[in-house]
Design goal:
There is one protein chain. The protein is an alpha/beta fold. The chain has a single domain, classed as Alpha-Beta Barrel (TIM Barrel), CATH 3.20.20. It contains 13 helices and 12 strands. The longest helix is centred in the middle third of the chain and has 21 residues, at 147-167. The protein is globular. The two termini are 25 Å apart. Mean pLDDT is 95; it is low at 371-377.
Length: 377
């Protein structure tokens, strides 16, 4: 290993005291490849196993916390006892390779997928159609959640946390980004409520904060403080009335005091600049690094491929970086850095590499056809 990459491979203690063996995190990526009933498939297990040996922490694909929360075909479930066996196998497959296993908890809200929600109508804070479904049919129109349903949904996150603990995961990540239900509650675009759950910036924070409190409550009852609780957030929305950078700065300032193990920024490029806000000279990563100010651990990601690009993140006082597309293309990324073979790290995805890389069939089909997931960087 080249000495200059020592920091990439150095251990790191999360805010809750749990030690990661290095600074490399695997970002959550949808596999579209669970069993039809939502249990973990053999294809998925092989995919995770192939990538779990090197990184310090591995965040799974989003796991749906209830039928109406489902947003992807063959999405992994974390609301039924019958899923425990497969989830246990998944946690074990990651942990036995030396990485911390984190289950991402997800509710799609108005971005759930009709036909996969157990016959239920999609739900959202205010019955606003998701922007991605604006041109779609009536079946994509959600209904507004009642007060009782909001409380029940918060409890669903708690139950999912209990099942994750029972399955042997080292922690959970609350998915508060990418347009899904928790983000919908925080956004003025999708949340038009005037009760406890909306009507002002502060009130739009109440749902995500309540989810965090419920997850912590379950953690304290069934596990220890060593159980990791992370939160993923998006900095801005494109909609005119949507989330602005200053909104998220205020929110992250609150999140940093919630005794979370880490906060995880969701951006496509680690050094992207904000599109709005009072500070547009620093990158989003630098802004949130400064807001968090060491109160909890911070993960950034986005278009990181090489060890030099990863090192640049760490040298900007960001303690952890996540690899997404790159770990798909190069499962041996960490091993090659350890062995001083960084020049052999793959940064182009060959079209004939699916089997060798142990990428599930349906995940592969989405990778090679979807915009934003090109064959090469």
């Amino acid at each position: 290993m080249k000495q200059k990459y020592n920091k990439i491979l150095s251990p790191y203690n999360l805010a809750n005291g749990t030690t990661l063996k290095n600074r490399v995190v695997v970002a959550p990526m949808t596999t579209y490849s669970g069993q039809e009933d939502g249990r973990v498939s053999d294809e998925e297990l092989a995919y995770y196993r192939r990538r779990a040996e090197g990184p310090g922490m591995f965040i799974t694909a989003a796991a749906t916390i209830s039928p109406v929360a489902t947003s992807f075909p063959r999405q992994m479930k974390v609301y039924e006892e019958k899923s425990i066996s497969g989830l246990t196998n998944l946690a074990t497959s990651i942990k036995e390779k030396g990485a911390r296993a984190i289950l991402q908890l997800h509710h799609g809200g108005s971005e759930s997928l009709p036909g996969y929600t157990g016959g239920e109508q999609m739900v959202s804070p205010s019955g606003i159609v998701a922007s991605i479904y604006k041109e779609a049919g009536e079946e994509y129109t959600p209904r507004e959640l009642s007060e009782d349903e909001i409380v029940s949904t918060i409890q669903d996150f708690g139950r999912a946390t209990y099942l994750a603990i029972k399955a042997g995961f080292d922690g959970v990540e609350i998915h508060g980004a990418n347009g899904y239900l928790i983000q919908q509650f925080f956004s003025a675009y999708s949340n038009h409520r005037s009760d406890h759950w909306g009507g002002s910036l502060e009130k739009r924070m109440n749902f995500p904060l309540a989810v965090i409190e419920e997850v912590k409550r379950v953690r304290d009852h069934y596990a220890s403080k060593q159980f990791i609780i992370g939160y993923r957030f998006l900095p801005e929305e494109q909609e005119e009335s949507g989330i602005k950078m200053d909104d998220t700065v205020a929110f992250v300032n609150r999140l940093a005091d919630q005794e979370l193990s880490y906060l995880h920024l969701s951006v496509k490029n680690v050094w992207s600049l904000p599109r709005s806000g009072s500070n547009r000279t620093l990158t989003r990563t630098e802004i949130f690094r400064d807001v968090i100010a060491g109160r909890t651990s911070f993960i950034s990601l986005g278009s990181i491929y090489t060890p030099d690009e990863a090192l640049d993140v760490l040298e900007k006082d960001v303690p952890l970086f996540a690899l997404g597309r790159e770990i798909l293309m190069e499962p041996d990324w960490v091993k090659k850095v350890e062995e001083g073979r960084e020049e052999n790290i793959v940064i182009i995805l060959p079209r004939d590499s699916r089997s060798k890389l142990e990428i599930p069939n349906q995940m592969w089909a989405n990778i090679i056809t979807r915009d934003g997931m090109p064959e090469k960087r």
